[in-house]
Amino acid sequence: MIKFEEILEATFEWMAVVLFKPFNPKKWLILGFAAFLAGYLSGGCRLNLPLEPDKDTKANKASFFKSISSDFSGKTGFSNQAIKESISRFLHQPYFSWIIVPIVIFILAFIVFIGWLSARFCFVFLENVIKNTCRIKSPFKTHKKISGSLFRFNLAISGIFIIVSLLIVGGWFFHMHLAGLLNSYQQNFVPITLISIPYILILFFFIFFALILQQLLQDFGTAFMYRKKIPAYAALREAYNLLISHKKEMFVYFLLKMGVAFCGNILLIFVYLLAIIILLIPILILAGLAYLIYMILPAMAKIVFLVMISTSAGVLFLFLIFCLMCLGLPLAVFLRTLSLKFLARLSPEDNLFIL
User: Fold this and answer.
1) C-alpha to C-alpha distance for 99 and 102, rounded to whole angstroms
2) At CA 146, angle to CA 141 and CA 152, rounded to 5?
3) 149-160: pLDDT as tens digits
4) Per-residue pLDDT tens over the stretch 271-296
5) All residues at 6 or more sequence positions from 337 whose CB lies less than 8 Å from its CB, including other chains
Protein backbone atom coordinates (compact mmCIF):
# COMPACT_ATOMS: atom_id res chain seq x y z
CA MET A 1 0.00 0.00 0.00
CA ILE A 2 1.52 3.29 -1.13
CA LYS A 3 1.43 6.09 1.42
CA PHE A 4 1.30 9.34 -0.52
CA GLU A 5 1.96 11.45 2.56
CA GLU A 6 5.35 9.77 2.84
CA ILE A 7 6.04 10.44 -0.84
CA LEU A 8 5.13 14.11 -0.38
CA GLU A 9 7.36 14.36 2.68
CA ALA A 10 10.29 12.71 0.91
CA THR A 11 9.76 14.95 -2.12
CA PHE A 12 9.73 18.11 -0.03
CA GLU A 13 12.85 17.05 1.85
CA TRP A 14 14.75 16.41 -1.38
CA MET A 15 13.59 19.70 -2.90
CA ALA A 16 14.87 21.47 0.23
CA VAL A 17 18.22 19.66 -0.06
CA VAL A 18 18.63 20.59 -3.73
CA LEU A 19 17.69 24.26 -3.39
CA PHE A 20 18.15 25.38 0.21
CA LYS A 21 20.80 23.23 1.91
CA PRO A 22 22.77 25.34 1.36
CA PHE A 23 21.18 28.17 -0.57
CA ASN A 24 23.36 28.97 -3.60
CA PRO A 25 22.23 31.74 -6.01
CA LYS A 26 24.54 30.43 -8.75
CA LYS A 27 23.00 26.96 -8.45
CA TRP A 28 19.50 28.47 -8.65
CA LEU A 29 20.34 30.34 -11.85
CA ILE A 30 21.87 27.27 -13.52
CA LEU A 31 19.03 24.98 -12.49
CA GLY A 32 16.52 27.66 -13.48
CA PHE A 33 18.13 27.89 -16.92
CA ALA A 34 17.94 24.10 -17.36
CA ALA A 35 14.36 23.95 -16.06
CA PHE A 36 13.27 26.78 -18.35
CA LEU A 37 14.69 25.16 -21.49
CA ALA A 38 13.27 21.79 -20.42
CA GLY A 39 9.81 23.34 -20.18
CA TYR A 40 9.38 23.18 -16.41
CA LEU A 41 9.28 26.96 -16.02
CA SER A 42 6.75 29.09 -17.87
CA GLY A 43 7.86 31.82 -20.22
CA GLY A 44 7.20 33.35 -23.62
CA CYS A 45 7.84 36.20 -26.01
CA ARG A 46 5.87 38.28 -28.47
CA LEU A 47 7.01 39.06 -31.97
CA ASN A 48 5.80 42.37 -33.37
CA LEU A 49 6.47 43.28 -37.00
CA PRO A 50 5.59 46.96 -37.60
CA LEU A 51 5.23 47.22 -41.35
CA GLU A 52 4.68 50.46 -43.25
CA PRO A 53 3.43 49.55 -46.75
CA ASP A 54 2.92 52.17 -49.40
CA LYS A 55 -0.42 53.71 -50.19
CA ASP A 56 -1.17 51.38 -53.11
CA THR A 57 -0.56 48.32 -50.99
CA LYS A 58 -2.78 49.77 -48.25
CA ALA A 59 -5.51 50.38 -50.81
CA ASN A 60 -5.18 46.83 -52.14
CA LYS A 61 -5.39 45.43 -48.64
CA ALA A 62 -8.44 47.54 -47.84
CA SER A 63 -10.23 46.43 -50.98
CA PHE A 64 -9.19 42.83 -50.36
CA PHE A 65 -10.66 42.70 -46.87
CA LYS A 66 -13.69 44.65 -48.02
CA SER A 67 -14.32 42.08 -50.76
CA ILE A 68 -13.94 39.23 -48.27
CA SER A 69 -16.43 40.93 -45.98
CA SER A 70 -18.93 41.29 -48.80
CA ASP A 71 -18.42 37.65 -49.82
CA PHE A 72 -19.11 36.28 -46.38
CA SER A 73 -21.73 38.67 -45.10
CA GLY A 74 -24.10 38.77 -48.04
CA LYS A 75 -27.48 37.13 -48.22
CA THR A 76 -26.14 34.19 -50.16
CA GLY A 77 -23.95 33.21 -47.18
CA PHE A 78 -20.90 30.93 -47.38
CA SER A 79 -20.83 29.83 -50.99
CA ASN A 80 -18.03 27.57 -52.21
CA GLN A 81 -17.24 29.96 -55.05
CA ALA A 82 -16.91 32.90 -52.64
CA ILE A 83 -14.56 30.92 -50.44
CA LYS A 84 -12.40 29.85 -53.39
CA GLU A 85 -12.23 33.37 -54.80
CA SER A 86 -11.35 34.90 -51.43
CA ILE A 87 -8.59 32.36 -50.80
CA SER A 88 -7.24 32.92 -54.31
CA ARG A 89 -7.16 36.70 -53.81
CA PHE A 90 -5.40 36.25 -50.46
CA LEU A 91 -2.72 33.94 -51.90
CA HIS A 92 -2.04 36.37 -54.74
CA GLN A 93 -1.54 39.41 -52.52
CA PRO A 94 1.99 40.90 -52.96
CA TYR A 95 2.83 40.59 -49.26
CA PHE A 96 1.87 36.90 -49.02
CA SER A 97 4.86 35.23 -50.69
CA TRP A 98 7.44 37.83 -49.61
CA ILE A 99 6.45 38.28 -45.98
CA ILE A 100 3.97 35.72 -44.67
CA VAL A 101 5.58 32.59 -46.13
CA PRO A 102 9.11 33.34 -44.80
CA ILE A 103 7.65 34.27 -41.41
CA VAL A 104 5.69 31.02 -41.23
CA ILE A 105 8.78 29.01 -42.23
CA PHE A 106 10.88 30.81 -39.63
CA ILE A 107 8.28 30.24 -36.89
CA LEU A 108 8.01 26.54 -37.73
CA ALA A 109 11.81 26.16 -37.76
CA PHE A 110 12.02 28.00 -34.44
CA ILE A 111 9.37 25.74 -32.89
CA VAL A 112 11.26 22.64 -34.05
CA PHE A 113 14.50 24.04 -32.65
CA ILE A 114 12.85 24.76 -29.30
CA GLY A 115 11.50 21.21 -29.26
CA TRP A 116 14.98 19.82 -29.88
CA LEU A 117 16.46 22.04 -27.17
CA SER A 118 13.71 21.10 -24.73
CA ALA A 119 14.39 17.37 -25.29
CA ARG A 120 18.10 17.86 -24.62
CA PHE A 121 17.57 19.88 -21.46
CA CYS A 122 14.88 17.52 -20.19
CA PHE A 123 17.65 15.09 -19.23
CA VAL A 124 19.98 17.88 -18.11
CA PHE A 125 17.39 18.99 -15.57
CA LEU A 126 16.56 15.40 -14.62
CA GLU A 127 20.18 14.53 -13.87
CA ASN A 128 20.76 17.69 -11.86
CA VAL A 129 17.68 16.97 -9.73
CA ILE A 130 18.68 13.35 -9.15
CA LYS A 131 22.34 14.02 -8.36
CA ASN A 132 21.86 17.40 -6.64
CA THR A 133 24.24 19.13 -9.03
CA CYS A 134 24.12 22.18 -11.29
CA ARG A 135 25.93 21.11 -14.45
CA ILE A 136 24.98 21.86 -18.04
CA LYS A 137 27.79 20.81 -20.37
CA SER A 138 28.37 17.24 -19.15
CA PRO A 139 24.74 15.95 -19.12
CA PHE A 140 24.04 17.85 -22.35
CA LYS A 141 26.66 15.72 -24.13
CA THR A 142 26.12 12.48 -22.21
CA HIS A 143 22.43 12.06 -23.02
CA LYS A 144 22.60 13.07 -26.67
CA LYS A 145 21.24 9.74 -27.99
CA ILE A 146 18.18 9.42 -25.75
CA SER A 147 17.36 13.12 -26.06
CA GLY A 148 17.43 12.75 -29.84
CA SER A 149 15.01 9.83 -29.54
CA LEU A 150 12.73 11.91 -27.33
CA PHE A 151 12.82 14.82 -29.77
CA ARG A 152 11.95 12.65 -32.80
CA PHE A 153 9.17 10.90 -30.88
CA ASN A 154 7.69 14.23 -29.71
CA LEU A 155 7.90 15.56 -33.27
CA ALA A 156 6.08 12.51 -34.64
CA ILE A 157 3.41 12.63 -31.93
CA SER A 158 2.89 16.37 -32.50
CA GLY A 159 2.45 15.77 -36.23
CA ILE A 160 -0.07 12.98 -35.62
CA PHE A 161 -1.93 15.15 -33.12
CA ILE A 162 -2.20 18.04 -35.57
CA ILE A 163 -3.30 15.80 -38.46
CA VAL A 164 -5.95 13.96 -36.42
CA SER A 165 -7.26 17.24 -34.97
CA LEU A 166 -7.54 18.71 -38.46
CA LEU A 167 -9.34 15.58 -39.67
CA ILE A 168 -11.85 15.84 -36.82
CA VAL A 169 -12.47 19.54 -37.48
CA GLY A 170 -12.59 18.89 -41.23
CA GLY A 171 -15.10 16.08 -40.69
CA TRP A 172 -17.27 18.41 -38.65
CA PHE A 173 -17.09 21.10 -41.35
CA PHE A 174 -17.88 18.59 -44.11
CA HIS A 175 -20.83 17.19 -42.12
CA MET A 176 -22.17 20.72 -41.68
CA HIS A 177 -21.79 21.29 -45.42
CA LEU A 178 -23.64 18.08 -46.31
CA ALA A 179 -26.44 19.05 -43.93
CA GLY A 180 -26.78 22.36 -45.77
CA LEU A 181 -26.01 24.42 -42.69
CA LEU A 182 -23.25 26.44 -44.37
CA ASN A 183 -25.37 27.65 -47.27
CA SER A 184 -27.23 30.42 -45.47
CA TYR A 185 -26.16 33.25 -43.23
CA GLN A 186 -29.00 32.71 -40.78
CA GLN A 187 -28.16 29.45 -39.02
CA ASN A 188 -30.38 27.12 -37.01
CA PHE A 189 -28.88 26.57 -33.57
CA VAL A 190 -30.47 23.17 -32.86
CA PRO A 191 -29.15 21.14 -35.83
CA ILE A 192 -25.73 22.80 -35.55
CA THR A 193 -25.57 21.76 -31.89
CA LEU A 194 -26.69 18.18 -32.59
CA ILE A 195 -24.05 17.77 -35.30
CA SER A 196 -21.28 19.51 -33.31
CA ILE A 197 -21.63 17.59 -30.03
CA PRO A 198 -20.20 14.25 -31.30
CA TYR A 199 -17.21 15.99 -32.90
CA ILE A 200 -16.57 18.04 -29.77
CA LEU A 201 -16.67 14.89 -27.63
CA ILE A 202 -14.34 13.03 -30.00
CA LEU A 203 -11.91 15.95 -29.99
CA PHE A 204 -12.11 16.22 -26.20
CA PHE A 205 -11.33 12.54 -25.63
CA PHE A 206 -8.55 12.64 -28.20
CA ILE A 207 -6.92 15.63 -26.48
CA PHE A 208 -7.39 13.93 -23.09
CA PHE A 209 -5.72 10.76 -24.39
CA ALA A 210 -2.84 12.79 -25.85
CA LEU A 211 -2.35 14.59 -22.52
CA ILE A 212 -2.22 11.27 -20.64
CA LEU A 213 0.43 9.96 -23.04
CA GLN A 214 2.39 13.18 -22.71
CA GLN A 215 2.31 13.02 -18.92
CA LEU A 216 3.32 9.36 -18.89
CA LEU A 217 6.28 10.10 -21.11
CA GLN A 218 7.31 13.22 -19.21
CA ASP A 219 6.94 11.84 -15.69
CA PHE A 220 7.95 8.21 -16.10
CA GLY A 221 9.08 7.57 -19.68
CA THR A 222 12.03 9.94 -19.40
CA ALA A 223 13.06 8.21 -16.16
CA PHE A 224 13.08 4.83 -17.94
CA MET A 225 15.04 6.36 -20.83
CA TYR A 226 17.57 7.82 -18.40
CA ARG A 227 18.09 4.59 -16.44
CA LYS A 228 17.90 1.99 -19.23
CA LYS A 229 19.11 4.09 -22.18
CA ILE A 230 16.14 2.96 -24.28
CA PRO A 231 14.31 4.90 -27.04
CA ALA A 232 11.23 6.96 -26.31
CA TYR A 233 8.65 4.53 -27.74
CA ALA A 234 10.02 1.67 -25.57
CA ALA A 235 10.03 3.92 -22.52
CA LEU A 236 6.44 4.96 -23.17
CA ARG A 237 5.44 1.32 -23.45
CA GLU A 238 7.00 0.62 -20.03
CA ALA A 239 5.22 3.66 -18.58
CA TYR A 240 1.94 2.44 -20.06
CA ASN A 241 2.46 -1.02 -18.54
CA LEU A 242 3.07 0.70 -15.22
CA LEU A 243 -0.23 2.55 -15.62
CA ILE A 244 -2.13 -0.65 -16.45
CA SER A 245 -0.69 -2.59 -13.50
CA HIS A 246 -1.21 0.22 -10.94
CA LYS A 247 -4.37 1.98 -12.14
CA LYS A 248 -5.59 3.12 -8.73
CA GLU A 249 -2.22 4.44 -7.54
CA MET A 250 -1.61 6.24 -10.86
CA PHE A 251 -5.05 7.84 -10.72
CA VAL A 252 -4.36 9.16 -7.21
CA TYR A 253 -0.91 10.31 -8.31
CA PHE A 254 -2.25 12.37 -11.22
CA LEU A 255 -4.93 13.94 -9.02
CA LEU A 256 -2.29 14.72 -6.40
CA LYS A 257 0.03 16.24 -8.98
CA MET A 258 -2.73 18.43 -10.43
CA GLY A 259 -3.62 19.63 -6.93
CA VAL A 260 -0.01 20.41 -6.06
CA ALA A 261 0.54 22.19 -9.38
CA PHE A 262 -2.63 24.26 -8.98
CA CYS A 263 -1.86 25.32 -5.39
CA GLY A 264 1.79 25.92 -6.24
CA ASN A 265 0.94 28.19 -9.18
CA ILE A 266 -1.53 30.17 -7.06
CA LEU A 267 1.20 30.68 -4.46
CA LEU A 268 3.67 31.63 -7.19
CA ILE A 269 1.38 34.42 -8.37
CA PHE A 270 1.57 36.07 -4.94
CA VAL A 271 5.35 35.51 -4.81
CA TYR A 272 5.77 37.14 -8.21
CA LEU A 273 3.62 40.12 -7.21
CA LEU A 274 5.56 40.58 -3.97
CA ALA A 275 8.90 40.36 -5.81
CA ILE A 276 7.77 42.90 -8.41
CA ILE A 277 6.64 45.33 -5.70
CA ILE A 278 9.99 44.97 -3.91
CA LEU A 279 11.93 45.47 -7.16
CA LEU A 280 9.95 48.58 -8.13
CA ILE A 281 11.53 50.69 -5.38
CA PRO A 282 15.21 50.37 -6.45
CA ILE A 283 14.19 50.48 -10.13
CA LEU A 284 12.39 53.80 -9.65
CA ILE A 285 15.33 55.19 -7.69
CA LEU A 286 17.80 54.18 -10.43
CA ALA A 287 15.51 55.59 -13.11
CA GLY A 288 15.29 58.90 -11.23
CA LEU A 289 19.08 59.12 -10.86
CA ALA A 290 19.55 58.32 -14.55
CA TYR A 291 17.08 61.06 -15.47
CA LEU A 292 18.87 63.63 -13.29
CA ILE A 293 22.24 62.72 -14.83
CA TYR A 294 20.74 62.93 -18.30
CA MET A 295 19.38 66.43 -17.64
CA ILE A 296 22.71 67.88 -16.49
CA LEU A 297 24.79 66.41 -19.33
CA PRO A 298 25.67 68.44 -22.45
CA ALA A 299 23.80 67.73 -25.68
CA MET A 300 26.46 65.52 -27.29
CA ALA A 301 26.99 63.49 -24.13
CA LYS A 302 23.26 62.90 -23.79
CA ILE A 303 23.20 60.73 -26.91
CA VAL A 304 26.05 58.53 -25.67
CA PHE A 305 24.52 58.32 -22.20
CA LEU A 306 21.10 57.43 -23.63
CA VAL A 307 22.58 54.57 -25.68
CA MET A 308 24.55 53.26 -22.69
CA ILE A 309 21.65 53.48 -20.25
CA SER A 310 19.23 51.90 -22.76
CA THR A 311 21.56 48.95 -23.36
CA SER A 312 22.21 48.49 -19.64
CA ALA A 313 18.51 48.76 -18.82
CA GLY A 314 17.64 46.17 -21.46
CA VAL A 315 20.19 43.67 -20.16
CA LEU A 316 19.13 44.31 -16.56
CA PHE A 317 15.47 43.89 -17.48
CA LEU A 318 16.07 40.51 -19.12
CA PHE A 319 18.14 39.36 -16.14
CA LEU A 320 15.44 40.41 -13.68
CA ILE A 321 12.79 38.59 -15.73
CA PHE A 322 14.92 35.45 -15.63
CA CYS A 323 15.43 35.83 -11.87
CA LEU A 324 11.68 36.18 -11.39
CA MET A 325 11.14 33.00 -13.38
CA CYS A 326 13.65 31.20 -11.17
CA LEU A 327 11.33 31.86 -8.22
CA GLY A 328 9.24 29.04 -9.67
CA LEU A 329 12.17 26.62 -9.38
CA PRO A 330 11.01 25.05 -6.07
CA LEU A 331 7.73 24.01 -7.70
CA ALA A 332 9.55 22.67 -10.78
CA VAL A 333 12.00 20.65 -8.68
CA PHE A 334 9.18 19.43 -6.44
CA LEU A 335 7.04 18.18 -9.34
CA ARG A 336 10.01 16.53 -11.06
CA THR A 337 11.04 14.86 -7.80
CA LEU A 338 7.46 13.81 -7.00
CA SER A 339 7.23 11.61 -10.11
CA LEU A 340 10.61 10.02 -9.35
CA LYS A 341 9.79 9.33 -5.70
CA PHE A 342 6.44 7.86 -6.71
CA LEU A 343 8.12 5.67 -9.36
CA ALA A 344 10.61 4.44 -6.73
CA ARG A 345 7.71 3.32 -4.50
CA LEU A 346 5.91 1.56 -7.35
CA SER A 347 9.02 -0.06 -8.79
CA PRO A 348 12.00 -0.05 -6.38
CA GLU A 349 14.36 -1.32 -9.10
CA ASP A 350 13.69 1.94 -11.00
CA ASN A 351 14.75 4.16 -8.08
CA LEU A 352 17.03 6.71 -9.78
CA PHE A 353 18.24 8.16 -6.47
CA ILE A 354 20.38 5.09 -5.73
CA LEU A 355 22.21 5.00 -9.08
Assistant:
1) 6
2) 115
3) 999 999 999 889
4) 999 999 999 998 899 889 988 988 88
5) 11, 14, 15, 18, 129
